[in-house]
Write a structure and sequence with these properties.
disordered C terminus, globular, 15 helices, 5 strands, about 5% strand, about 325 residues, alpha/beta, single chain
Amino acid sequence: MMRLPNFIVIGAAKSATTSLHGQLLHHPDVFLSDPKEPEFFARDDNYAKGIDSYATLFEGAGEEQVAGEMSTIYTMVQHFPKTPERIATHLPDARLVYMLRHPVQRAYSYYTQLIKGYQRSTHDLTVNRTFEEFILPDAHAAAAPRHKAIAPHNGHLPDVPDLCTAASDYVTQIEAYLAHVPRDRMLFLLFEDYRRDPRAVLDQLTDFIGVRRLSDAEFCAGAGAQNTSAEHYGTMSKQKTIQRIKSVAGPLWNLRRLLPDAARDRLSGAVSSAMPSGGVEPPPMLPKTRQMLEDRFRADLPRLQELTGLDLSAWKLCPDAMTAAE
């Protein structure tokens, strides 16, 4: 019989789903798809290949294993509206896990992910768009063109002003799913809880998908930050500095090989310190942008709390601390 996933982590992007993936890879009773994000139910081009093609991703799952995948664009229903219905049609018994993060921080982190993807794929280390040029309609209209800001491998993503913010509209996502999926088949988790106590959140997840909890050894084997932008931008900054040194030094750059290792290291360090900073990291969002987005998402909190039963006070979007729904 065709093997299909028993669970899907549907999002949200930039909410530690890569870290969850790393942890579950060390669970012997869990089989995860390769690639991590097949995006089958969202993208028309993938869906057109047929459910048999999707099922091949899970052929390696053992009979006693629970199979799953993690595609975060499944919670971008504004741009991939057929996703919930497709999942409900083909996976009527699957369990859906949804990790939520502070909506403004998630949106900005997604922006930095787009810039990171562009830099890695094009080797152009320039930041050609600010966050505001991605999300504000007027600024977006006058911003650098798509090919200067979005990686070719993200061709399925629309270059529209809500690209970074759509997935933070959690109420829109959840209500779209609840139109097709029973509430008891959805688990809602908080990124902030995961940062504070990852073991407790993982225990919730494994209980929900029906496997034993990770042992101490398995948990430690999968621990550690995953998909961090800081590491990427640190590396890219060094690369850009080297590029500048080479352009200034010209043919003398190759003469560095004639120096002893220690002298070469001292010289490289001194020149790097004297060069201007790499300038590869995206600028922070403007304070007025943050305020605008916080005001926007604050209005959704009562309904979001009702739908998820989560305590959202850690987001500090509301003057009065919110408590978990009854």
